[in-house]
Request: fold
Amino acid sequence: MSLVDLFSVVAIGAGVFFFLAGTVGLLRFPDTLSRLHALTKADNLGLGLIALGLLPRAESTLGAFKLVAIWALVQLAGATTAQLVGRAVRRKGTAA
Amino acid sequence: MSVLQALDIGLGFLVFAVAAWTVFARGAFAATVGYVVYGLLLSLVWIRLFAVDVALTEAAIGSGVTGVLLIGAAARLRGSETAADEKSLSGLPRVFAAGLSLLVAMALAGVVLLFPDEGPSLAPQSMQHLPETGLGNPVTAVLIAYRAFDTMLEKVVLVLAVVGVWSLAADPHWGGAPGEARAERPEPTLAFLAQVLAPLGILVGIHIFWVGADEPGGAFQGGAILAAMWIIVMMARLTEAPSTSAFWLRLALIAGPLVFLIAGVGGAVFAGSFFAYPPGFAKPVILFIEAFMVLSIAVNLPMMVAGPPRREPKR
Amino acid sequence: MTSATLAGFVGAALVGLGLYGLIASHEPLRKILAFNVIGSGVFLVFGIVARKGASAGLPSDPVPQAMVITGIVVAFAASALAVALVLRLLDETGRVTLSPDAWTKPSGDGAEAE
Reply:
């Protein structure tokens, strides 16, 4: 296995670990706000690591740029959704 | 068993489990969220079946726009008093329903097992005539060139659906606008998302439509992304839904099927038969039709999500 | 078992699941969800037909793929019309249910018997 492949495997493995950690947080934390916290932090980092691991395997520079753009868009969507869910929880209590 | 096979089996179980959650979940809202997740997982299954265009359409329309529609409906239904009326099916009818469902599923599985390994296929004919259409993506060629009449009728079905949705307005509201009025101070988070995402989304949508001629993509997927951008801007209350009696709205809705029909009739005049494209000139005609299809879809889907008019028309 | 046959089995299971949900739930929104599950199960069976038609250098027959794309769009249109009907029923009567007892029992606000 070449060095580039090893780098990809390590980065994607780390990303999967962070996703797993985020999911464990989602299942085990007591209330909505702390679950949101675990989910957004861990999932964004996990996706970033997976995108980093896939970068050497992209077929062209444009493909690599698209991977990074996907990560940025998911961060935007995730941040907005977390804000909106947090605001709804604060207004209506956890029965929202 | 190879890794890929194990992955397929795991994905199949996951899709079935999430669909079971959608059917058996406690509340309607939870079931709707489960449906959105189910649609996204289904896109992965379509990728495994090597049907990338279908995966894009399932993610954009099947899970995305349908998800917005259903979550909006579930949110509005949450406060209504359905709990008192609900008495779920019990006893013999439930057993009968379960037995019928099991029978249908097993019959369908039996049919799946009976499929020959190398089935009859229209792929050779599609590839054979692909150079004449000037396209590189055979699915786009099937949609716009070989089965153009079916696609035009599908656009007409979309227009009929919008007419059906609008006709559900109360009499005093006919001709008004659906949804809520434009907010004085739109919610900042949603407004930020709409202002950052909409220009990017429009670019991505047009790109996917344009690239669909040679690679996976096409008019439906691109149009669905453009529709999603308009839905986000309307949800952020940065703009309000147009009044249903607006002339430009009605023109945009019928532009797709109208241009399609004109191209078909023009084919009868210039190229010999209904929906024939002139040889050597096929790709420009196809892209011209697709552009108007994208416009129609981008206007049609948000209007169906917005629903019937709920305000009086402005005089 | 190839991935196509597995997808076909999953599709058959989804059709059964959706059919049970369609018959057994009383809330119209759950029925609409179950109807969509049935639809996507049928599309998966189409997908295996497409996959088994792989030839001429293509991994999957394009004609069933085009039919599934058309089907997804039309299923969305049907769902939109169904949701509009349900929401209109909500606006008119304040509650949404298909259970027959709810409409035929005499009630204080004079709801019409169906």
